[in-house]
Amino acid sequence: MTDVQSLLNVTARDMPPSGIRRFFDIAAEMDDVISLSVGEPDFPTPWHVRDVAIDSLRKGHTGYSPNRGFTALCREICTYCARRFDLHYDYRTDVVVTVGGSEAIDLTVRALVNPGDEVLVPQPSFVCYAPIAKMAGAKAVPIVTRREDEFRLNPDVLRQHITDRTKLLILPFPNNPTGAVMRREHLEAIAEVLRGTDVMVLSDEIYAELTYNGVPHVSVASIEGMKDRTVVVGGFSKSYAMTGWRLGYALGSAPVISVMTKIHQYAIMCAPTTSQYAAIEALRTGDADIKAMREEYDLRRRLIVRGFRELGFDCFEPEGAFYVFPCIAHTGMTSEAFCQKLLERQHVAVVPGNAFGDCGEGFIRVSYAYSTRHIEEALRRIRLFLKEEGLMDEDTSQRED
Amino acid sequence: MDKILAVLKDNPRLTNAQIAAMVGQSEEAVGEAIAAYERDGVICGYKTVIDWEKLEQTEKVTAIIELKVTPRRDTGFEKIAEEIMSFDEVESVSLMSGGYDFSVGVTGHTFKEVALFVANRLALIPSVISTQTTFILKRYKQAGIILSPVNTDERGADIL
Fold first, then answer.
1. Which residues of chain B have pLDDT under 70?
2. How many domains does chain A have?
3. CB–CB of B155 and A42 under 8 A?
4. Would you call B7 and A299 a contact, using CB atoms and an 8 Å cutoff?
């Protein structure tokens, strides 16, 4: 019999699976689980956007699109990014429409790195960067972002990690899982470190529309001298609640986008046509939808931060995305133990912080892409859990259960 | 819409402290704002949406009555509306455009009880010309709340 195991690609075979599979399996066995674990909007895609997609199907627009995406969509993406983020790109050469932001990340890495190159990955962050870098033969080098820096990338720490082999810096802000954002002054400091080096930047701005406290998103590509060395990754999933449509894009200088489009053409052909029709409508008329969802997330964000602080957690106030990242170190448990016990005892599912990099140990990621009632119930159960564990004095409980 | 009202309209059981955190104001300011809304009649009350069908022992029927009336010379529809809404059996009264004048929600324990209330009370109000009673058989959504929500949370991607 053929030993298929031994025939697998070694890098892919030895890659660890996503760290939270186990929790989802346990949670799936329970019927009254309150989950705050999912990283996608709880809203459906706005109806007018769905309607345009349905109409395109009725009319029989069911073929491929051009490899880089419909010209009308490329044009709308560039118009939107100019309008919202002061980013100026040529729709004919500087944009490729992808299967979600995820494909755009993969394309960027594959277009830029050579075997042996180093890719700098600030952590805690979304789980895909290091595996994608490894598949491309590069070495992923984590950079720790710290609570005391409000989980921003510290320019001095960045400088210490740059070597002759450094090819690419990932900038995952607004950040999943911490909710950290890099404001203009922080990006200026990063740009200052990068000037005079050949380090390219992949700026994952999938949460660009979800920032709070009146802090509008700033793209690193809009910082002086950064545009040519940056690939901006954006998408429709988080801003327009379109995760299932699998549609994103990358913006960058023509030579990079051209190589990315080539890989995209061989691997994928083109992004889903129906989704592209929907995306054109979203970009043209979806501003009010974004605003309504952002306002709703903001209410929940404030509620959940207050809730965790009231329960005695050190909870960083996130300024972006839809997660809080409270510290659980004072409980004396590891992140995994905390999550497992909380799930077993009170049937509440949250994600251990170390799923987002070793430095996430001591934290948990809690999504607030859930209704207020759902969040309240979860907080109530977490309170009971802490009491059971003897981690909460009666006098710190200010409210009746 | 004022943020406090936007929160309160869907979540009336939140504490003032929670609402204060959500809208970024002090607890006192929220308390005062709500008191002012109540005083000015902007907030008219707080009700609980109950699906009575889930409680088998409780029989409750509701009918929507379409009333045609002759408006009175001096007071128009107002006095008639006042008279209709004075009954405890009446849950809602609205003036309508179109084919009839008032839509009246009436509840009772049995179909017969509601039908008799319409015949013996509403129909006898001077200026009521005609009534048409239609009973509610099943409620699916009320006050913006789906009564038997199917769990549609299909979100399960484990890639985070």
1. 57-58, 151-152, 154, 156-160
2. 2
3. yes
4. yes
* pLDDT tens sequence across A305-344: 999 999 999 999 999 999 999 999 999 999 999 999 999 9
What is the C-alpha radius of gyration for chain A, rounded to an integer number of angstroms?
22
Domain CATH number, residue A228 = 3.40.640.10
Look at residue A401 and tell me if it is in a domain.
no
Q: Which residues of chain A are within 8 Å of residue B49 when distances are taken between CB atoms?
A: none
Which residues in chain A touch residue B22, judged by CB atoms under 8 angstroms apart? Answer: 299-300, 302-303, 306
Q: Which of residues 9-48 of B touch A (CB under 8 A)?
A: 10-11, 14-15, 17-18, 21-24
Note down the domain range covering A293: 4-45+288-396
A132 and A35 together in one domain: no
Residue A318 shares a structural domain with residue A274: no
CB contact under 8 A, B18 and A40: no
Residue length of chain A: 401
Asked if A305's CB is within 8 angstroms of B158's CB, the reply is: no
HEC string of A119-178?
EEEEECCCCCHHHHHHHCCCEEEEEECCHHHCCCCCHHHHHHHCCCCEEEEEECCCCCCC
Does A201 share its domain with A337?
no
pTM for the model? 0.89
Please report the ipTM that was assigned to this predicted complex: 0.73
Residues A263 and A354 in one domain: no
Query: Are A228 and A268 members of one domain?
Result: yes
Q: Annotate A174-185 with b (16+ C-beta within 10 A) or e (fewer).
A: bbbbbbbbbeee
A207 inside domain = yes
DSSP letter for each residue of A313-379? -B-----BTTEE--B-GGGT--HHHHHHHHHHHH-EE-EEGGGG-GGGTTBEEEE--S-HHHHHHHH
- Residue in chain A nearest B156 by alpha carbon: A38
The size of the A-B interface in CB pairs under 8 A is: 53
How many Å lie between the alpha carbon of A24 and the closest alpha carbon of chain B?
7
